[in-house]
Amino acid sequence: MLDHYLKVFKWRIIPMFRKSCKNNSCKSRACIRYGIAPLIPARAGILLMMCMISMAAVAAVPQLPVYAALGGDFSLTDTLGKSVSLRDWQGKVMILTFGFTACPHICPTTLMELSKLYGGLGDRASQVQIVFISIDPKRDTPEHLRRYLLAFQANIVGLTGSEDQLRQVAKLFGAVFNDAGDVGEVSHSDRIYLLDAKGQVRQIYAREEQFDQLQQDVLQLLQQRGFCHVFPLKISTLCNKYLSS
Length: 245
Fold this sequence. Notes:
The protein is of the alpha/beta class. It has a 7-stranded mixed sheet.
């Protein structure tokens, strides 16, 4: 039902507004800016009602919470040795997790599952970014991290940095890890974080248990993003703000 409303809005309502604008040779500010002409009251009322129904259909889906106390921008080093920030992927849905390449079981299993999720997105995969933050800077150099991530069939960005930088980032997300020390073992929080297109943390998952739920939530954020994307910029911003509240 939701998909039906979204298709009706995108392929019927928007073209009708624009066609009306063209036919009436509208010179108003609204028409010039948005491609929307003043319409006769009856047609305008019908279109507005359909728009409201579409918005209600999206809003009726239970929205994911916003974990306002978690997350925030940060800068780390990617596998090419370049400094990158979380805001570099703003506009995409992000899946973020911590780990290290020498992890024997949990980390590779998690990355395999995330690769499956990414592969199942099809054309929508370009709207999702997976971020793997290594918390073992002594062994996980950018080049080593790059080679490690090549084994997974997904667009996974690997990040590293100094131990102080990594601890600051981990603190932003409520994650913890210990130094590998002489024994070479690292213990760390085993959580996956789902971030929306604005970089807000929207859900947290236990690695072993919730991959199916993660997939559903990713699709929900993508659907929400796709719905708002059909509007002009200012309306799109309000739409995203409304559906994220």
